[in-house]
Description:
Layout: H1 13-33, H2 37-48, E1 67-72, E2 89-94, H3 97-101, E3 111-115, E4 126-129, E5 145-150, E6 159-163, E7 178-183, E8 192-195, E9 215-220, E10 227-228, E11 234-237, E12 240-244, E13 246-247, E14 262-266, E15 268-269, E16 272-276, H4 277-297
Antiparallel strand pairs: 1-2, 1-4, 1-14, 2-3, 3-12, 4-5, 5-6, 5-8, 6-7, 7-13, 8-9, 9-14, 10-13, 11-12, 15-16
Amino acid sequence: xxxxxxxxxxxxxxxxxxxxxxxxxxxxxxxxxxxxxxxxxxxxxxxxxxxxxxxxxxxxxxxxxxxxxxxxxxxxxxxxxxxxxxxxxxxxxxxxxxxxxxxxxxxxxxxxxxxxxxxxxxxxxxxxxxxxxxxxxxxxxxxxxxxxxxxxxxxxxxxxxxxxxxxxxxxxxxxxxxxxxxxxxxxxxxxxxxxxxxxxxxxxxxxxxxxxxxxxxxxxxxxxxxxxxxxxxxxxxxxxxxxxxxxxxxxxxxxxxxxxxxxxxxxxxxxxxxxxxxxxxxxxxxxxxxxxxxxxxx
Length: 298
């Protein structure tokens, strides 16, 4: 049998009542300002996964000011990397746990990774920035410096793709090679160059416009190392399993870059603003295969 009835007030009942009222007021105040954890997570997801329309290239080249995706195209497992992931990957913002719990959403998003999604959204679209005074709309040329910026779907701040020499405190977590990260300050660490794919013809193409949706090499100006996805190092993020992005030049026996360093600057489809050139190529390839199968049956 209970010693006291349910209505009897014991111990620090007044303090407990005041504490409950304060907690309720604090909850309502945070909800009005959108500072609850669930609200921040929903806001991050809405911005990072917001559909983005890519810029359309009318002349087939990449221009300053274009909104594009950086695609590491499909490759097959090699002898050195038999368990590497196959399929196309895109460069994207890496969302970790600190980004979720921090009230400053974009300022804590300093990681990048390669993801399987090839749909243009806030987290995997970048803008080509001019760092040498070139006007917006001018084509980028091989050997010309440029910047890569992303807003992550937000509108108040831009982060810039950067890299720096490997040190005891700054290195890639999985491969221990040169790290690639995002920063909110423009500097020489945020400058990149595009190089022609074939090293034997690289010098002849210096100064020519960079074609869109074609394989190129993207090199960091400060360290002279190329952007790469090894594909055998993966990390956990809020969106699941993603692949590490580093700055390292992988060379084969002929002193040419391997497919880990191959990138394509993807633009929008001029015939459909809601799709990209990837969708257009896949649609054309599927149409060709369908016609070949029909001819074989005949």
